[in-house]
Amino acid sequence: MLGLIILLFLFPYLYGMIFSYKKELKSVFVQIVIGLIIEFVIWTIISLIVLFVSRDFLSAVKIDSIVNFVLITLILIKNWKKILVSFNINGGWTYIKNRAFVVMIIIVLLQMLRVAFFQYGYGDNRVYVSIVNDMVNTNVFFPFNPETGIYQSDLSQIPTKYVLSSWYSFEAMLAKISAIKPLIIIYTVLPVVIILGMYIIWWELSGIFFKDNITKRSAFIISFALLTELRTEDVNDYILFWPTYGKNITASIVMPLFLLIWLYNCRERQRNYEVLLFLTMIAGCAASTMGLMMMPLEAGLLTGVEVIRNKKLERCMVYRFLLLMVPVLIYAYLFIR
To answer: Over 197-210, what HEC string results?
Structure first.
């Protein structure tokens, strides 16, 4: 369990510190979400290279561990003073005294407990869990065809939508390093982390919409939570019952985070925001092939809104959009090749 805490909270927090020098990204909680995306992107790059070269899952885990160790060591050396003082949470008592905020916390905690202790079975869900379990047990990337259950020595025989969805191999990596069964991680630990990360992002977005009004921000989150509870369509099922689906990671974590960083960048254009947008685009495509459609649409829509707002199309907007399309084009090529 200690290894899982390090991988899901400590490492992400330290990675998130790289982008925390702007006041908008000072929140420890936002840093953790951003850092988790960075950790996932690092795994995606390493795992895809190893996957297409040898399919040796254990080698990818070892390489990823070494890379993380080196990067985290460098971050600790450079930022050790900042780490000692970064956990101060100012104005905490002001939040606790606000009744709407307390109600919001209770509702979010109840949803976190529910996703940890109640998820009903679904065919695809069992398939994805089996994929993760097979990688952990065989030390081979996608050893069995998920649709036939037959061992495939040729990677081309595995459906591309599974091969390019690095989220499932990321779950397998977490299970391998922590020595915790994939079933436990996927059905208990990760759902709580995902729900928490989703609400952290939406809380930050509410700060843009309602500034420092705690009551309005809390009411916004409460309304969002109740909407997921009262509706029974597929989107709500993914959030509350199958939160560890790759497509839910794209929809619930990556896309709102992309919107948050974009809005910060519109306030004050900064290179660190541009880098974060690029990394988030990679994460959206890597978590699910759905990202190949949704991430470009989101980037295009936000660019269009920015053009209308500024009443002109700037060269930097075009360059940024083209740069953001690079991961999409690479994944599209890998998907159809």
So the answer is: HHHHHHHHHHHHHH
Please say whether the beta carbons of 239 and 228 come within 8 A. Answer: yes
The DSSP call for residue 157 is G
The model carries a pTM of: 0.89
Query: In terms of Cα–Cα distance, which of 297, 298, 255, 306 is closest to 280?
Result: 255
Region 56-78: mean pLDDT is 90
Q: Which two tokens stand for residue 194?
A: 């995902």
Alpha-carbon separation of residue 284 from 77, 197, 215 (angstroms): 31, 15, 32
Residue among 199, 297, 205, 198 at smallest CA distance from 249? 198
Distance CA 17, CA 28 (A): 8
DSSP 40-57: HHHHHHHHHHHHHHT-BH
CA dihedral 279, 284, 287, 292 (to 10 degrees): -130
- Mapped onto helix, strand or coil, the DSSP state of residue 140 is strand
Whether the CB-CB separation of 133 and 182 falls below 8 Å is answered with yes
* 132 Cβ neighbours under 8 A, 6+ residues apart: 168, 169, 171, 172, 175, 182, 186
Q: Which two tokens stand for residue 314?
A: 């700037």
Helix axes 99-117, 190-210, angle to 10 degrees: 150
Q: Give the model confidence (pLDDT) of 219-236 as tens digits.
A: 999 998 888 877 655 555
pLDDT at res. 124 = 58
Tokens 């707002």 label which residue? 309
